[in-house]
Structure formats: C-alpha cells, structure tokens
Amino acid sequence: MIKNTSSQESNTRKIEIVDGKIIYTLKLDGVQDYLTYNQTLYEILCLDRLRPFRDDGRLRIKIYNHGTDQNMYLYDLAIACYMGMVNTETFLEDMQGYFEFKERYGLSADHLDNHIRNNTTLNLSLMKRTTNSQKSDITARVEKPSAIVACYVNGRYLVHYESHNVTCGLMVGVLNRLLGGSGKPLIVGNPKFDVLQRFRCEDADTFVKCLNSIVNRRITFMGKDIVLPMRDNRRKWRSNNSGSYTENVLESIKAQEVVASNPIEAFQLFE
To answer: In a 3-state reduction of DSSP, which class is residue 269?
Structure first.
C-alpha cells in the first residue's frame, strides 16, 4: 500500500510522495519536478549515490560508477521506469538498454505540455525525433485565447482543444470549463464564441497531424482571428512564448488529469 504522504531528504534534495505523485525538490534552486509514483523510480531516486543538478533547466542525476561519472535526465529515467524497463539493483545497466532502444528506433522523449518539470505518465512519451520536432513547431505557434491540453494514456494521445472570444479586454480563462468545477474559476471573462473539440490519436504521427489540423484551421469572429494561422500576412512564422498550454505546471498537470478522466468515447478518433 502506497502511503499518501511520505518524504526522504538529504543535503541536496527532498523527495516527497503526495497524492500519488513524486515531488523532487533540488535544494540548490528550490525548483520542484513532478513525477507519477512508481516504486522502482522512487527507490532509485532515493539512492544516496545519485547527485542531482540542472542542465538548461532540466534535472539530471549523476552517478559515480567504476571510476567515471554517468548521468542522465530525470525524464529518461522516469520513462524507462514507467515502461518497466528498469530494476532498482541494475538500473545503470538497464538504462543503457533503454538508451540503445531509443537510438535504434530514432526516438526522443517529449513533454506534451512543454513543461520540462512535468514528468508524469500523462505528459511523457517517446516519439520519433522528426515527429517531436514537428510537434514543437506547431504547439509553439498556437496563441491565446485558444488552448490545447494533450495527454498520453495507454499508448494513445488524447487532445482537448477549445477557443474563446474575449470582450471587455479580459482574457477568458480557457481552462475555466475544464478545471472550474464548483470552485472559483482561474480567470473570469465573457466568452462570446466557443469551440470545443476532443480527439484521440492512436500514435504520435497521427497526433501531430491532429495538432496541425487545429493550428491551420482559421476561425474568425466579427472579423477577428480566434486561432491565428501559423504564418503571418508576410508569410513569416509566428513566434509565441506562452504557447497554448497553461503557464503554471501544477495547473497543467491538473488539466491533463481532468482530460484523462473522461471516457474514451468522449474523444473523436482522428484519422
């Protein structure tokens, strides 16, 4: 039985189990990374020989092994554990097998919501490098007040897409309907135009095609673009720093959990 709350702490990090998630806090910067609870993953992360550090915002763990330092990204270790490819006692050898598997099939790890600290099962998946690059190009060019929440469930990609019109100069909380429930909405606004679609995609290539179809769809309200095209009127690629996802990692995790809780019948098969 998994304890609802427990923690392991050292001079460099604190590891907590809270509501079925592992929260890994690097004490050097105080930043927290979130993972779905997995017994093997938890046991490995608690090993004293692991030394954590940041690499361009991403958390790596370093291990001194037979005279040399080996290191790996936290998300790679998480994926390998979620896939059942790793045992605690032999995790270094097992991770080598995982990396060889990635290389053999030209795979890379993808964070669906673009949050590198969201390393939960709903957010991580392996896809071809070319597919991953195409996905990143698409999601970076979707702008508010549209939102895409994607999650990975049982080998499928589930996509929740919605768009709203805004009046009175207020940004509509694009996830109000998704997350609001009986609580106070995240952001309040006055939606005059709503688009809501849900798709399920059987593989990563189809998922990227689905995203592309959403982004290339031109929707207007009173002459104003609601979902902006990927290129501007000068045929140049649009650049967008905020993206179409929630800007807060915890809100993004919650949004994915809500989307994943819907019955599969709620999602139209994208072909």
So the answer is: strand
- Looking at the fold, whether 143 and 35 belong to one and the same domain comes out as no
pLDDT in tens, 7-42: 799 999 999 999 999 999 999 999 999 999 999 999
Please count the structural domains in the chain: 2
User: Does 121 reside within a domain?
Assistant: no
Q: Is residue 120 part of a domain?
A: no
Domain span including residue 161? 128-269
Q: Are both 140 and 248 inside the same structural domain? A: yes
Q: Is position 207 within any domain?
A: yes
Specify whether the CB–CB gap between 228 and 236 falls below 8 A: no
| Helix, strand, coil abundance in the chain, percent, nearest 5 | 25, 35, 40
Tell if the pTM clears 0.85, that is, is over it: no
Judged on CB neighbours under 10 Å (0-12, 13-18, 19+), 198 is middle
Same domain for 62 and 133?
no
Distance CA 139, CA 243 (A): 7
Chain centroid offset of residue 66 CA: 35
221: pLDDT strictly greater than 80 = no
Q: Judge whether residue 222 has pLDDT over 70.
A: no
User: Which own/partner contact pairs does 206-210 have at CB distance under 8 Å and 24+ positions apart?
Assistant: 206/157, 206/270, 206/271, 207/135, 207/150, 207/157, 207/159, 207/270, 208/131, 208/134, 208/135, 208/138, 209/270, 210/157, 210/159, 210/270
Asked if residue 122 belongs to a domain, the reply is no
